[in-house]
Amino acid sequence: MRILVVEDNPRMGDLIAQGLRERGFACDVARRLVEADDALASAAFDLILLDVGLPDGDGLDWLRSRPQRGLPPVIVLTARDGLADRITGLDAGADDYLPKPFAMDELAARVRAILRRPGNRAEAVIELGGLTFDPAAQAASALGQRLDLARRELGLFELLMRRAGEVVRRGQIEEGLYAFDEPVTPNAIEAIVSRLRRKLEEAGAGERLHTIRGVGYLLKED
Ligand code: CA
Asked: How far is CA 102 from CA 82, 105, 106, 178, 197, in A?
């Protein structure tokens, strides 16, 4: 799951991003609305956290001006906690509203709740030949056994499960697992794949992960 945080306060943006990363989400921070537009144009996000007061405009005006179709769910973050502002936010097309200051655990709970809603991608458990990925619980299993995966291993597993039977190219994996400001070291993807493969092998399901040399990887049933 990849989240775009639109927040101009550097400390607040970094705290939110760090908190979400610790909870297993990939996270990018945009400091301005124009950066948010660029991010949305170049990567797919599952959710947007949107501040209202931004240097190049009002977050709610920006939200109102965007076509709703194709935009991921939006949680508005703002210090304006009056009822009128809340209604304005929801009318502008936000899915939820969280007044600052908030506890990181509450933000994470709201994020998970939005991602669980029908129509959002997090709804259904994905299954493939004895492998399962539960997006709401962020849990993976193989042949009935829970897989203990680190954050990027879980992200890779999710990516491959969502596109089961298709080859997922290395570039797409990098984009899905790393935020724009996180460097991808050489062989990083291979290392994540090999750790995931070892854990699948330990669960007796290693042969489902296929390497397409020079292209990418795929999960499929035997
Ligand atoms: Ca602000």
From this structure: 15, 8, 7, 26, 39
Distance from the alpha carbon of residue 57 to the mean position of ligand 1, in angstroms: 10
30 Cα–ligand 1 center, Å: 11
Q: How far is the CA of 103 from the centre of ligand 1 (A)?
A: 17
- Residue 218 CA to ligand 1 centre (angstroms): 42
Name the amino acid, one letter, at 55. Answer: P
Domains of the chain: 2-115 (3.40.50.2300), 126-219 (1.10.10.10)
- Kindly tell me if the per-residue pLDDT of 222 is higher than 80: no
Distance 80 CA to ligand 1 centre (A): 11
Which pLDDT value is given to residue 83?
Answer: 66
pTM for the model: 0.61
